[in-house]
Amino acid sequence: MNGVPGATPTHAPPRVIVIGLDSVSPALAFDVHRERMPFLSGMCARGAFGPLRSTDPPITVPAWVSMTTGRSPAELGIYGFRKRLKGSYSLGLVTPSDLAHPRLWDLAAAAGLACAVVSVPLTYPPPALPGVHCTSCFLTPDAASPYASPPELKEELEARFGEYIVDVAAHRSGDAARLFAECLAMTRQHFAILRHLITTRAPAFAMIVDLGPDRLHHGALRHALPAHPLHAPGSPLARAAADYYASLDEEIALTAAAAGPDAIVLVVSDHGVQPLKGSVCVNEWLIREGYLRLLDEPGKPTPLARCRVDWPRTRAFGEGGYHSRIFFNVAGRDPHGVVPASRLCSERAELAARARELRGPAGERLDTLAATPEELYGTARCEGFPPDLTIYWDRLGLRSAGTVGHGALFLPGNDSGPDDANHDFEGIFAMAGGGAPHAGRIDGLRVEDVFSTVAALLRIETPAGVVGRSVV
Q1: Beta-ladder partners of 328
Q2: Which end of the chain is more exposed for a tag (fewer CB within 10 A), N or C?
């Protein structure tokens, strides 16, 4: 395309609806629950579908932001929910103010297209743009916060749908029945809000991200995935999980109907999911390897930020989560840095080799990936403050526990509460309706391709430098 990014299309574009299902894998949507999801299966049969490779790391915030900007985490400078704060060893939450690149609704609004955006990650505070109606994401502090834009939309939605459900409270409670009920309530409310905006505001572009699947998987994947080691076939909770997927499909079908027969609907997810085998205590490992020193050992499991770290004798420390983020204590960069910048490459290579050599709790070999930012992103320049080393323990079969004081290198679960799942690298893509191509299965898709595809469908100009290819 020629012209200015966001320029008004010369011809009226089709209506495009993007339905995001957080944490849904191809195995769950295209296989295990295929019969429970006839509408999605029909989309695959008459349109295009396939696995969708997530970002590195495959984490909710960077993945959805990459999907809606067409930029990699390296270009965005966003590598997780939290960002390393320069000049300290602390982390802070990522916010929309950290974004230097426009998202799909920014470009669509600049082209004069009306937009509706519901609970898409990294929309708190919600964007104040003419023609954009938005409710913010799970990072909203609470339902009393100003979660809607324009501001008067909040009162309208609460009068019709009740208090806005920001997130699910029970996903780490261990109470699966309560979790299913809360996930279903949030799913139904958010989809109902989207349909209300579609029918009352007639947006050319609309997008929702339903966090319900992610919360259900972390709290109860054993009931949704027969391959989970703790799955109990035929149990009432297994049937409840299958019913939840049926409800998802119903919400997708209702939304497509509200959008009209000429609308093009995309169903996508940011990453996949797999059974959680346990955790690697990354800072315990770094202590054992001689990289991290504490002034005293905590008497119980404690976050590293609350420990007394002997920084002048510490070469590296880690952050927990779905994977390990390792930061070296670099002289001239960090407050008490001791590793010369000239030695950073060799230090990273040595620690990466040790990570790959680490055996599992039973002495088994692990399929561990340890990579530098340059190796992950193929560029010498990364915005923000990327980890010096990213470690996917056993291809994310094991998560990372950042707390210390366990007296062990491995935990059977998550150090932050009950958890059935860890992330996986592949989400889903399906597109049908309107003039969408009948392309069948497409392999090799990446999350950035969703951006390029939607931009092409909306016929809007995109900024130079975006990555991704359009399916149309």
Answers
A1: 316
A2: N
Q: Which three-class secondary structure state does DSSP give residue 274?
A: strand
Dist CA 309 CA 297 (whole Å): 10
Q: How many CA atoms lie within 13 A of 135 on its CB side?
A: 30
Tokens of 288: 């054992």
Q: Which residues, listed in sequence order, are joined to residue 370 by a DSSP beta bridge? A: 391
Strands (E), 182-261: 205-210
Rg, the chain, Cα only: 22
Three-state SS string over 291-348 comes to CCCECCCCCCCECHHHCCECHHHCCEEEECECCEEEEECECCCCCCCCECHHHHHHHH
Cα separation of 15 and 457, whole Å? 8
- Report mean pLDDT in 10-residue bins for the chain, 472 residues: 43 90 98 98 98 98 98 96 93 95 98 98 97 97 98 98 94 85 98 98 98 97 96 94 98 98 98 98 98 96 97 97 98 97 98 98 97 92 95 98 96 92 98 94 98 97 92 92
Largest Cα span, the chain: 68
What pLDDT sits at residue 6? 56
Three-class SS state of 189:
helix
Cα torsion for 207, 213, 214, 216, to the nearest 10°? 150
Q: Residue 40: how many CA atoms within 13 Å on its side-chain side? A: 31
CB 429 within 8 A of CB 51: yes
CATH of the structural domain 16-275+423-458, one choice from 3.40.720.10, 3.40.50.720, 3.40.190.10, 1.20.1530.20: 3.40.720.10
Q: Torsion angle, CA of 263/266/267/268, rounded to 10 degrees?
A: -160
Q: Which residues pair with 6 in a beta bridge?
A: none
pLDDT score recorded for residue 423: 98
Kindly tell me the sign of the dihedral angle through the C-alpha atoms of 144, 149, 155, 159: negative
65: region left, alpha or beta (phi > 0 left; psi from -120 to 50 alpha): alpha
pLDDT of residue 3: 33
C-alpha–C-alpha distance, residues 455 and 458, integer Å: 5
pLDDT at 174: 77
Tell the residue number behind the tokens 């679960």, with chain if given. Answer: 413
Domain ranges of the chain: 16-275+423-458, 278-418
Q: What DSSP element (H or E) covers 276? A: none
Task: Compute the distance between CA of residue 69 and CA of residue 65 in angstroms, rounded to an integer.
Answer: 6
